[in-house]
Amino acid sequence: MTMSQEPLIMPAAETIAIGIETSCDETAVAVVRLNRDASGDILSNIIRSQWEQHRPFGGVVPEIAARAHMECIAEIAAEAISRSGIDPGRLDCVAATAGPGLIGGLLVGLTFAKGFALALGKPLVAVNHLEAHALTAGLTNGIAPPYLLLLVSGGHTQTVLVRGVGDYQRIGSTIDDALGEAFDKTAKILGLGFPGGPAVEAAAKPGDPRRFDFPRPMKGRPEPHFSFAGLKTAVRREAQRQAPLSSATVADLTASFEAAVCDSVTDRCRLAYEVAAAQASEMSSSDAPLPLVVAGGVAANTRLRQALQEFVGRMGTIVVFPPLALCTDNGAMIAWTGAQHLIRGQTSAHDVPARARWPLDDTAAPIIGKGRNGPKA
Ligand code: KG4
Ligand code: ZN
What we know:
By secondary structure, this protein is an alpha/beta fold. The protein has 2 domains: 15-139 and 329-342, 2-Layer Sandwich (Nucleotidyltransferase, domain 5), CATH 3.30.420.40; 145-325, 2-Layer Sandwich (Nucleotidyltransferase, domain 5), CATH 3.30.420.40. It has 11 helices and 10 strands. It has helices at residues 51-54, 62-84, 103-120, 129-141, 179-189, 196-204, 229-242, 247-283, 302-315, 324-327, 332-342, and strands at residues 15-21, 26-34, 40-49, 93-99, 124-128, 147-152, 157-164, 167-173, 292-295, 319-320. It has a 5-stranded mixed beta sheet, sandwiched between helices. Helix 5 (179-189) crosses helix 6 and helix 5 (179-189) packs parallel to helix 7. The longest helix has 37 residues, at 247-283. Residues 129, 133, 153, 329 line the site of zinc ion.
């Protein structure tokens, strides 16, 4: 792999893309313009969450998600186009998430995109959802590769060296639960509701992060991976020991959980940063420190943000948090990634499949999901 010399190429003309995202529990469509100076503008960005439909089940139910996407995708796409103020004929491509994610939802969005592209006579770009998270900081903060990405969402926890568009090196990945999943499961154990992340954060606010000395998963281990299943189990055991739980104990349990998460994540980031910075400096003449970019829903967490700020201070670099609404799943990141591929002449055939599993770096050794479905991450 070589370092991309022109990570954000200047498009020959303004490029306008519509992006469709249906990989999990949000139906999202956006229209984005990639300008000639390589900057981007979001012309419209519509997100409809399905939380209410999944809440009674305490988690995302794939069949409910697919049906909910189907019921509103056409309406949301029409709204995104109308709010963008552009004529559909002016769109240069139709981009849609093709994976990884829940297959039913992916099929709804990708099939809709194929039909729409065909009707418009415009190219289709099948987008990798992880790549879209990885490139969002270019749209929102004008940041160009190389940088180290920390992706912490409900489905994924990875560190990735972003060398350029289409050029990714996965460094660390979770060996069990994703970080958002650990928040959601911890919330469930403590009866805090769904989605768990914001509920855990709210409960933890008045808590004492030192009361319970939970394990710091993987801390000090030489391989840069993550693990959160054991931490969740430690919270469950302690909660059973402390039962019946007072709200003060729940506050201390969640605060101590967050403290363990922050310690573990920053330790894993330090290792990933060392690997990434060494690689980046080998391939580029720039001596600017490699920035850290954070994406995914867990980037909303205040304690984690503070811990990452302190971490980059120690490393002598900066951390970039794209605006929260664009850290979580959205159509703008899909449209932006679609436009980046379009200007590189990379479009998709109409028989492109939806893929439940689609690693960003397919040269990296699979960490989980090595079975017949192929590597998960
Ligand atoms: O990126 P995202 O919106 O969806 C995907 O998983 O792709 O991330 C959702 C995850 C959920 O697990 C949610 O509990 C977590 O992000 N989350 C948080 C917070 N807000 C959302 N976790 C910790 N603290 C938060 N404030
Ligand atoms: Zn996501």
